[in-house]
Write a structure and sequence with these properties.
Elements lengths: L1 H4 L11 H4 L9 H29 L9 H29 L7 H26 L5 H28 L5 H21 L19 H4 L2 H6 L4 H9 L16 H32 L4 H6 L8 H27 L1 H14 L5 H48 L4 H6 L2 H22 L1 H20 L3 H45 L1 H7 L2 H51 L7 H42 L18 E11 L8 E9 L3 E5 L6 H9 L3 E9 L3 E4 L10 H6 L6 H10 L3 H6 L17 H15 L3 E5 L7 H12 L9 E5 L11 E6 L2 E6 L1 H7 L2 H22 L6 H12 L14 H9 L5 H4 L24 H11 L1 H30 L10 H46 L3 H6 L2 H43 L4 H45 L1 H6 L3 H50 L6 H42 L24 E9 L6 E10 L4 E5 L6 H8 L7 E6 L2 E2 L5 H5 L2 E4 L8 E2 H5 L7 H10 L3 H6 L7 E2 L8 H15 L3 E5 L7 H14 L4 E5 L11 E6 L2 E6 L1 H7 L2 H8 L4
Parallel strand pairs: 3-7, 3-8, 5-6, 6-7, 12-19, 12-20, 15-18, 18-19
Antiparallel strand pairs: 1-2, 1-4, 8-9, 10-11, 10-13, 13-14, 16-17, 20-21
Length: 1511
């Protein structure tokens, strides 16, 4: 290098340490300035160029019109190029004139000139490629300015010392050059206008990131606007930006699908090659057998190929960041050396402090770029996986579907795809953690020699310990989940059957059951919490123990090993770096294990068989025919026998064909075969024209009724109206709260079975297809509705006349009107022909008719027996009543009492808003009403509530213990710094063992305090969980029935599952982490202020900045998190809907539209995920900047006060400062976590404070022992309403029933029959008047005293999962004999004794494993066991078969002879022999007398009896 500077007048040395280092006024030699310093920017630009050009070629965004800014930049570039050339020519000019300049004066201007030209060309090339802000050039100009500052200072200094300017020409050109470079830097920070032809106008709210400048991207400044908006008001859906193009489902999906298809092709090719190899080498067969079977295509490879670029980019960022993190400990060691050397020039210290700051800032910026890159990649992983699974689910064969439940397939999407997203951020640790460990150990070795191995060995030994604790914790959590599931299941049953519990006064028994499960759950929770305390102890003590062993070994191995500040504190900071990868590795390994399971599951699912789209020939067909099957044999799965064989069927265009046959003969399979849903083994299927398909079980989407009918087609009002009319839906629309805009719940939950089927038919009618495949659509509706639909829609006079219709049916009455009939038996056509021809043949068809006809007649009779109501309006009510089934749900799976529903029907005349008593408070037709989400910050009272639940003393103790722990930690480190400052006497420190002992004691004290506080927190947390759940449970058990009618059970369950889970598992650890990082931050500040008091001046501005950022962030991120969770569930519910309805979707040819809908739903979710990720980066950069400032000031003040500071103190204060960024970052994170989690306490509290019903037992007034003796019931001027604000249901009722009387209660729907019984049990409390039983006012006694003395057999028999014994006698107060006696009388004896378990027979949830009739008999057995004086019988409407009904009536006549019986009758024949009959009308008594008298009086009762054929 010296030769390059030549022997010119400039003195040729390249580097002179006396000039540059050992002086108070440093400078570089002119040679150094002119050569290396000037070349640094140029080297950078040329190095970055190839990659950058490659990138630009790939990302073309349309060119940018030449703007003033661009012209200025170019002009500056050209000027700089000119300045360099001028310099070069000046050198040549010198050469010509004989004073030969050094070679450097030719090389440097040439290099700089060419580079400036390159930069100028790059400016233009970027403009043509559409780059608005160039990071490459900004860095280049920045380097030029930085490298120019040194000569800038040195030229002025030398001119001042010499008194004259040595080389005026070059002096001038340099300053011109500097000014131009500075201007170029400033200009390059501004960004260009968007590219021409860019689609910016389409997007209403584009993501600012795409157009953000380089600096804005680096610091995430583009996010600030959203942060401010989120701070001003809670964010909403519309505030979110659209996604960047490359993050949209459509794009990600396509790339992934292409790669996956490539993988599939490769696998297929490999398989083919394998097969051919097998053929060739018969002698090699043995070898081939040993080979594993041909591989499945690898989904992992497809993922890697799709996302490889972003993956490599993230690896680059991570590598730089890892290397940077090791620079600060080295700088710390230089700083300590500087402090211990009083002769060193002061500027060294300032330089090191500056470098520390720069290094930290670089690390921050790069780390967050890395995180952003990797999290967005995780997001794309999830998007891609969800899309691929969704598309696959639309084409899998039925055999695949049979293997796995819908839930399992949905799990692939929700759980497994999410796992991928969670593991992606850790993936790079696979190579980064070993790298960090190796580097840390290397530097430690340099520092302390072999004694480092002691510390590392300890760390490695602690890993299996951590692992064991984690495994144990996971085992406990699995067990705890089991308890939690059983508790939630029980709760959901309780909420489902809450009315029955109230009527039987059974709440205490179930309360006890829930509390029993909860006890077990809490026991496990305690164990988990103690384990958690142990792992916290290990986590806190590891770094300390490692430092202790290392330093201990180091000083005791050799007397001459002196522990000075540099060794001690550099080691401490290196161990702090080492701690993170060592702790992450076990977590990474368990995550990877889970993800590999997910990967296998996804890969297996994606490799399953697909339906063959060529199975049905859709293009050609013999003219005149619509459907032809030629010698077709079909199966559901390859391993099953064919379901249909050798079919030959031809359906002419426009024919109506009926397909009949016994159950299981393959009628539905035939339609599936026509749709191509079955696997074709042989034959040909032709079907020309569009298809509409009505499945046997109607498939309804969760959208408005109109959208269900239109099914993706445009609205044509006339055609739409016609379809509704034909399908008899108009009457229903009047009842539904929002007409055809009513939102229909999942699986059509708020429609009855008949309505669902009619909507399904209407969808087919509206689709206006050529071929209609109808799979028994008439069985789900009532007979008169079926007739209407056949006449209006399917039959020869219907809307579809002239279309080709294939109708599977059991309804024999419709057959004469069909064109021809296909009779199937056992999967083949046994007969085919017109109805009349088949009858004459007397074959299997005629037999079929004989079997089915009797039922058919009965059905007709029943249809004719319907009361012929005079006025038309009531006939409408009737039709509706039978479509709104008993379990109709109005809002959000809310079990509305039958009564409310009747009221709802009664008030039909009139406008829609009168219709919905059950939903008054809600929007007119939206079904799933939005739950109120708490907006804004959480009130302090909630924290106070939680603290009280934990116990105030406990909370105080925890805080104190944490304080003590911090004090111990500071003490240990201060002791370490004092030890390092101890004087060295002839190369050794004296009292090493004493020093080491105290250090160890302080460290262990810290660990113990941490453990104590964790255990205290565990105890407190479990206590809080217990109290909060208990309050919630007790309140819910005592809530009045009206609460359950208006609150969806899902919402109450959510409190018991999600919110209690948060209180159980998340709150306490979050609080511990918050305390930990809070005390860490505080102790850092304390240490720095103690060692350099000046630091106190900066604390305030930094704290203000910190709090400012924190407030902005928390408000925004909380709302983003809420939006994210709200938009996540629609993806899964839409998916499960798609899986169930895939055959319908394919039949109508709408797969593509559904894929688009799914993409849109995923994108909506990503729209809130993406800003959430960005918000974390935005926060991280700002908070870490505060932390970096702490480092800077700690170092600066250490330098300024070095005369009074010992190296030990400086080491202490700076090594603390280096940890502060992490603590500050965690503190905000845990704060916002705490805010989003503490909401659970608020929600649980809210439901623990709702109003309760009257007390269960009133101590002062309990009824006498044998009460009621006679069983007299008297109503005095009694009125009642369902809820305040609704009209009265019973108005001024007065009547008296004598003991032992049998009274039947009749009346139209909604007359108030059921209300009467509810009042008797005080489910409804009186509005005025009172009820007396045996002369005792029921309002004066406790609810349980009242309800346990009455017996009811309710309308819908509800059983709970558990033993039969528990269902009969939950309190265990009856003997075995009593129970068998009751079962004998209720005709269940034979059934129960035939069960091996007897009374211990397990009933499944809701008694699903018993028939409806058996359940009704169980309810009868309950009544027989209680055998009270008063029996209320709420007759079942439709659920029950006639046989069971007769059994029940007979038993009641014999067993309850002496009791008072009140029967709500729907069938009059049951009450014709009763003492008296009460006829209710619109809530008042219309008639009350014996049945014979009432019939003679020819009033309402007579009319009803005549209609029923009894009079």
């Amino acid at each position: 290098m010296d030769a390059l500077c030549g022997s010119g007048e400039l003195g040729s040395k390249f580097w002179d340490s006396n000039l540059s280092l050992h002086t108070d006024n440093p400078d570089f030699t002119p040679c150094f300035q002119n050569s290396l310093l000037a070349w640094v920017p140029c080297i950078y630009l040329w190095a970055a160029l190839p990659c950058y050009l490659f990138y630009l070629r790939r990302h073309h965004q349309g060119y940018i019109v030449l703007s003033h800014l661009s012209r200025f930049k170019t002009a500056l570039g050209v000027l700089l190029w000119c300045v360099s050339w001028v310099d070069l020519f000046y050198s040549f000019h010198g050469l010509v004139h004989g004073w030969a300049p050094a070679p450097v004066f030719f090389v440097t201007p040439l290099v700089v000139g060419v580079t400036m030209l390159l930069a100028t060309l790059l400016i233009q090339y970027e403009r043509l490629q559409g780059v608005r802000s160039s990071g490459i050039l900004i860095i280049f100009w920045f380097l030029c300015v930085v490298c120019g500052i040194i000569p800038f200072r040195s030229k002025i200094l030398s001119a001042l010392t010499q008194g004259k300017i040595a080389d005026p020409f070059r002096f001038t050109t340099f300053y011109i050059y500097f000014a131009l470079v500075l201007s170029a830097l400033i200009l390059s920070c501004f960004r260009e206008k968007p590219p021409f032809f860019s689609p910016k106008n389409i997007d209403p709210n584009p993501c600012p990131e795409a157009g953000a400048g380089f600096l804005s991207r680096l610091s995430f400044w583009w996010f600030t606007k959203l942060a401010i908006l989120g701070y001003r008001r809670p964010l909403e859906e519309r505030d979110l930006w659209s996604l960047n193009k490359e993050d949209r489902s459509q794009m990600v999906m396509q790339r992934l699908l292409e790669e996956w298809e490539k993988q599939q092709d490769q696998a297929a090719r490999r398989q083919a090659a394998e097969a051919s190899r097998k053929k060739l080498s018969s002698e090699g067969e043995v070898l081939l057998e040993g080979r594993p079977r041909a591989q499945e295509p690898s989904f992992l490879r497809a993922l890697m190929a799709t996302f490889s670029t972003s993956f490599l980019l993230s690896m680059g960022f991570k590598l730089i960041q890892d290397l940077l993190s090791f620079i600060n400990p080295q700088l710390l060691s230089i700083l300590i050396r500087f402090i211990s050397n009083p002769t060193a020039p002061t500027w060294w210290g300032f330089l090191v402090a500056g470098l520390m700051f720069v290094c930290s800032v670089m690390q921050t910026l790069i780390l967050h770029q890395y995180y952003h890159c990797i999290f967005v990649m995780g997001l794309r992983f999830r998007t891609g996986i969800i899309g691929v699974i969704y598309r696959k689910a639309l084409v899998i064969t039925n055999s695949v579907k049979r293997e796995s439940t819908v839930g399992e397939i949905v799990n692939l999407m929700s759980v497994d795809a999410q796992r991928f997203m969670d593991v992606v951020p850790f993936i790079n640790l696979l190579w980064s953690a070993p790298l960090q460990i190796i580097l840390a150990v290397y530097f430690l070795w340099q520092n302390l020699g072999p004694s480092v191995l002691a510390g590392v060995a300890l760390m490695i030994l602690l890993i299996p310990l951590n692992g064991a604790v984690a495994v144990k914790m996971r085992a406990f959590q699995v067990e705890q989940m089991k308890f939690k599931d059983s508790r939630i299941k029980l709760m959901s049953e309780i909420l489902g059957g809450i009315k029955v519990l109230k009527l039987y006064a059974w709440e205490p028994s179930f309360l006890k059951q829930v509390e029993g499960i909860r006890q077990d759950e809490l026991r496990l929770m305690r164990q988990v919490a103690y384990l958690h305390a142990i792992s916290t102890f290990i986590w806190v003590c590891t770094p300390f123990l490692v430092t202790l062993t290392t330093l201990g070994v180091y000083v005791s191995v050799d007397k001459n090993n002196v522990l000075d500040a540099e060794k001690a504190f550099v080691s401490v900071s290196l161990f702090n770096i080492l701690k993170i990868p060592l702790n992450m590795l076990p977590q990474l390994i368990s995550n990877l294990a889970q993800t590999s399971v997910s990967l296998k599951r996804i890969q297996h699912f994606l490799s399953q068989d697909e339906l063959d789209p060529q199975c049905v020939e859709r293009k050609t067909i013999t003219p005149g025919y619509a459907v032809i099957i030629h010698n077709g044999t079909f199966t559901w799965a390859q391993d099953l026998p064919p379901a249909l064989h050798s079919l030959d069927i031809q359906v002419p265009k426009g024919a109506l064909v009926a397909v009949v046959g016994p159950v299981g003969c393959g009628k539905s399979s035939l339609l599936s075969a026509l749709l191509g849903e079955m696997e074709k083994l042989e034959g040909k299927v032709y079907m020309k024209g569009s298809v509409a398909y009505v499945p046997q079980q109607a498939w309804i989407q969760n959208c408005t009724l109109q959208e269900n009918v239109l099914f993706g087609q445009a609205l044509d009002p006339k055609r739409y109206q016609k379809a509704l009319e034909a399908c008899a839906l108009l009457a229903d629309l009047e009842v539904l709260p929002g007409g055809d805009q009513t939102e229909i719940g999942e699986k059509g939950i708020n429609l009855s079975g008949g309505q669902r089927q009619r909507v399904s038919v209407a969808r087919a009618v509206y689709s206006d297809a050529d071929i209609f495949l109808l799979d028994d659509p008439l069985s789900a509706v009532d007979s008169h509705v079926a007739k209407h639909i056949f006449d209006q829609v399917i039959g020869p006079e219907g809307v579809l006349a002239g279309k080709t219709r294939v109708l599977v049916t059991h309804g024999i009455s419709f057959l004469p009107q069909t064109d021809f009939v296909i009779v199937l038996s056992d999967g083949h056509v046994s007969e085919m022909g017109t109805y009349s021809a088949l009858l004459q043949r007397d074959g299997s068809f005629a037999n079929f008719l004989r079997n089915y006809a009797p039922d058919e007649d009965k059905e007709h009779q029943e249809a004719d027996n319907r009361p012929a109501l005079e006025d038309k309006e009531d006939e409408g009510v009737l039709m509706i009543e039978d479509t709104l089934s008993n379990h109709t749900d109005l809002t959000d799976n809310e079990p509305v009492t039958y009564e409310v529903q009747k009221q709802f029907l009664r008030r039909r005349p009139g406008a829609a808003e009168k219709v919905v008593p059950a939903t008054e408070a809600k929007a007119s037709h939206v079904l799933t009403q939005e739950e109120k989400t708490e907006m804004g910050t959480v009130k302090l009272s909630v924290y106070w509530d939680y603290a009280k639940a934990v116990g105030l003393w406990t909370a105080l103790v925890i805080c104190l213990l944490y304080g003590g722990q911090s004090a111990a930690a500071i003490g240990a480190n201060v002791w370490l710094s004092a030890w390092t400052d101890e004087a060295v006497v002839d190369n050794q420190q004296n009292s090493t063992s004493y020093r080491l002992g105290v250090y160890a004691a302080l460290g262990i004290l810290q660990g113990l305090l941490v453990m104590l506080s964790a255990i205290t927190m565990a105890v407190g947390g479990v206590q809080a969980a217990r109290l909060l759940h208990q309050a919630l449970l007790h309140n819910k058990m005592r809530s009045p029935q009206s609460f359950f009618d208006t609150t969806p059970s899902g919402r109450i369950l959510n409190r018991f599952s999600k919110d209690i889970y948060v209180i159980d598992e998340l709150l306490a650890p979050t609080i511990l982490m918050l305390l930990n990082s809070f005390y860490n931050s505080i102790s850092t500040l304390v240490v720095i202020v103690a060692s350099t008091p000046l630091f106190a001046v900066v604390i305030l501005p930094l704290a203000v900045l910190y709090l400012f950022v924190q407030r902005f962030y928390v408000a925004t991120s909380r709302q983003l998190k809420r939006l994210e969770s709200v938009s996540r569930s629609p993806i899964y519910s839409h998916f499960s809907e798609t899986v169930t309805g895939s055959s319908v979707i394919r039949a109508y040819g709408r797969s593509q539209d559904f894929e688009t809908i799914n993409d849109a739903k995923v994108d909506t979710n990503q729209k809130s995920c993406y800003p959430y990720i960005a918000s974390n980066r935005w926060l991280g950069i700002r908070v870490e900047f505060v932390g970096n400032c702490v480092v800077l000031f700690a170092a600066l003040f250490a330098v300024t006060g070095r005369s009074s500071l010992s190296p030990g103190l400086v080491g202490l204060s700076v090594s603390y400062a280096l940890q502060v960024t992490l603590a500050l970052n965690w503190m905000i994170r845990t704060m916002s976590d705490l805010e989003s989690n503490i909401v659970a306490v608020e929600r649980v509290k809210e439901y623990s404070k709702t109003e309760t019903e009257a007390p269960w037992v009133v101590e002062g007034s309990r009824p006498p022992a044998g009460w009621p003796l006679k069983g007299e019931v008297e109503f005095r001027n009694y009125s009642v309403r369902y809820r305040p604000g609704l009209e009265l249901v019973l108005k001024d009722l007065s009547l008296r029933v004598h003991g032992g009387e049998k009274v039947g209660i009749v009346g139209r729907t909604g007359a108030g029959k059921s209300s009467m019984t509810l009042c008797l049990f005080r489910i409804l409390e009186a509005a005025e008047g009172e009820i007396y039983i045996d002369g005792l006012n029921v309002a004066d006694i406790g609810l349980h005293d009242l309800r346990s003395k009455l017996t009811i057999i309710p309308q819908d028999p509800i059983l709970f999962s558990g033993t039969l014994r528990m269902n009969l006698d939950p309190f265990g107060c009856y003997s075995e004999e009593d129970m068998w006696q009751a079962l004998e009388l209720s005709h269940l004896h034979s059934f129960v004794s035939s069960q091996p378990a007897g009374l211990e027979f397990q009933c499944s949830e809701g008694g699903e494993n018993l028939s409806v009739g058996q359940r009704q008999l169980v309810c009868l057995a309950r009544a027989l066991l209680r055998k009270t004086r008063i029996l209320v019988l709420d007759e079942a409407t439709a659920a029950i078969d006639l046989e069971t009904d007769d059994l029940i009536q007979a038993t009641i006549r014999t067993q309850f002879e002496t009791c008072t019986v009140l029967t709500i009758a729907h069938r009059l024949n049951t009450i014709m022999d009763y003492t008296r009959v009460l006829v209710l009308d619109k809530g008042t008594i219309a008639e009350f007398d014996s049945p014979t008298n009432l019939i003679a009086a020819r009033g309402i009762f007579y009319g009803m009896a005549r209609d029923a054929g009894l009079a």
